[in-house]
UniProtKB/TrEMBL annotation:
Coiled coil: none annotated. The lineage of its organism: Bacteria, Bacillati, Actinomycetota, Actinomycetes, Mycobacteriales. This is GMP synthase family protein. InterPro entries: ChyE-like (IPR044992), Class_I_gatase-like (IPR029062), GATASE (IPR017926). It holds the Pfam family GATase. It comes from Mycolicibacterium gilvum (strain DSM 45189 / LMG 24558 / Spyr1) (Mycobacterium gilvum). NCBIfam families: PRK07567.1. One of its GO terms (cellular component) is cytosol.
Length: 247
C-alpha cells in the first residue's frame, strides 16, 4: 500500500511565495510531489476534506491575520477563515495530525480560545526561540537544543493560552512561539520551513504588505544573514516522519 500523502494548505495569493513555500515543505519534510498535495485557498474553495485520506495537514503562513478588522477583510479572507475554522473543529475533535506554521497560531489559537492580538508582534527576520520544559518532552521538539534561531515575522500572536493547551516554545518578545493541542495538533509562530533563501524571497514578495518599510528590505536581508537557522526544519521533518501513515 502507498503512503497516504500530506496536505499543504496555502493562503498565499502570490505565486512566487506560494511555490517557494511548497518547495521548502517538500525539501525539509523529506517528501516528493506524490507525498505532498497542496491547495491554494486563495484560488479555490477548500471543499470537503476526508481526513482518512491524509497522513497529516500542514497550514502555511501568509498575509492573513484572524485579528484583522472584520470590516477590512476581503471576501476571500472571510471565506478562507470560515473554511479553516470548520476544518479545525474536526481536526481538534479527533486529534488529527496538524501543523500550522505562523498563521496556525492565529487559526488554531482562535479555535481553542487563546487570546490572539497584536501585543507581541515581531519584525521580519531572525528570532531566538527557547524550548520550554514541556517542549523538551514533546516528540517534535525533543531533539532540538534548548535555544535556537529561526525566521519569522508576524503582526498577531497568542498573548495567552487556555488551560490544557501546552506551550512548547517561547521567545523574549513573543511569549508563545509554539503550542500543542491534544497529542497531535501543533502550531508554531516561527516558520519551520524557512531558510535564508526563503526569508529573502518573502521579504521581496511582501515588502508592500505592511510588515516593514519597503525601503528597509535589503537591510532586513542583511540582518537575516546574521542568524544561523538550521534547527527549525527538524520540526517539519519530525512531523512527517511521525505521522506518515499507510492507507
Amino acid at each position: 500500500m502507498a503512503d497516504a500523502p500530506f496536505l499543504l494548505l496555502s493562503i498565499r495569493d502570490e505565486d512566487e511565495a506560494a511555490d517557494d513555500e511548497y518547495r521548502a515543505v517538500l525539501r525539509f519534510g523529506g517528501l516528493d510531489e506524490a507525498g505532498l498535495h497542496r491547495i491554494g485557498l486563495t484560488h479555490c474553495e477548500l471543499g470537503a476534506v476526508d481526513l482518512s485520506q491524509w497522513s497529516g495537514i500542514i497550514l502555511g503562513g501568509g498575509p492573513y491575520n484572524v485579528s484583522d478588522d472584520a470590516a477590512g477583510k476581503s471576501a476571500t479572507q472571510v471565506r478562507v477563515e470560515a473554511e479553516l475554522a470548520a476544518l479545525l473543529r474536526e481536526v481538534i475533535d479527533v486529534d488529527f495530525p496538524f501543523l500550522g506554521c505562523c498563521y496556525g497560531v492565529g487559526t488554531v489559537g482562535t479555535a481553542v480560545g487563546a487570546v490572539i492580538d497584536r501585543a507581541h508582534s515581531e519584525p521580519v527576520g531572525g528570532v531566538t526561540v527557547q524550548v520550554t520544559p514541556e517542549g523538551r518532552a514533546d516528540p517534535l521538539f525533543a531533539g532540538l537544543p534548548d535555544t535556537f534561531d529561526a525566521y519569522g515575522g508576524h503582526k498577531e500572536a497568542a498573548t495567552s493560552l487556555p488551560p490544557g493547551v501546552v506551550r512548547l516554545a517561547t521567545s523574549p518578545v513573543c511569549p508563545v512561539q509554539a503550542f500543542r493541542v491534544g497529542a497531535n495538533v501543533y502550531a508554531t509562530q516561527f516558520h519551520p520551513e524557512l531558510d535564508l533563501d526563503g526569508v529573502c524571497t518573502r521579504i521581496d514578495v511582501y515588502k508592500n504588505h505592511g510588515y516593514f518599510a519597503p525601503e528597509t528590505a535589503e537591510s532586513l536581508k542583511d540582518a537575516a544573514r546574521g542568524h544561523a537557522v538550521t534547527h527549525p526544519m527538524a520540526i517539519l521533518r519530525s512531523f512527517v516522519e511521525r505521522y506518515t501513515a499507510r492507507r
